[in-house]
Amino acid sequence: MNRRAVITGVGVVSPLGIGSQAHWDGLVSGRSAVARVDRLTRLGFPVDVGADVPGQIVAACVPRMPKKQVKLFNRATTFAMAAASLAAADAGITTPVPDPVRAGVISATLFIP
Fold first, then answer.
1. Among 19, 84, 107, 112, which has the minimal tally of Cβ within 10 Å of its Cβ?
2. Eight-class DSSP state of 95
3. Which residues have a Cβ under 8 Å from the Cβ of 77 and sit 6 or more positions away?
4. Which residues, including other chains, have CB under 8 Å from residue 66's CB and lie 6 or more apart?
């Protein structure tokens, strides 16, 4: 069976910027997102330097969700919701989705212990 997929929208949540254009601008400018991250030390990690995405900026990217609900999600889920919202906007998809059976989201995260 030969099936095809089409990427219609892109949503990026990264330490360099929220949104594909902000992320790309950060990449091509050579800007570093690495800085001291106090949260790592508080969580018990033996390092205090990393590239962090500010949570309050990401929560602002999820406008259709109640703030109380966003507070209940972990960071990875909040990032995924924000990226999906940005990708839908980039694709020009409005709600309700015309055919939800033919729509989907691919989410990827990277965790290095």
1. 112
2. S
3. none
4. none
Whether the model clears a pTM of 0.85, i.e. scores above it, the answer is no
- Summarised one tens digit per residue, pLDDT across range 56-112 is 677 677 766 677 777 788 778 878 888 888 888 898 887 777 777 877 777 766 665
Q: What sign does the CA torsion over 12, 17, 24, 38 have?
A: negative
Residue 85: is it exposed, middle or buried by C-beta count within 10 angstroms (0-12/13-18/19+)?
A: middle
List, as one string, the DSSP characters of 10-77: ---EETTEESHHHHHHHHHHT---EEE-HHHHHTT-S--EEE---HHHHHHT-TTS-HHHHHHS-HHH
31 and 99 Cβ atoms separated by less than 8 Å: no
What type of residue sits at position 39? Answer: R
- Is residue 46 packed enough to be buried (19+ CB in 10 Å), middle (13-18) or exposed (0-12)? exposed
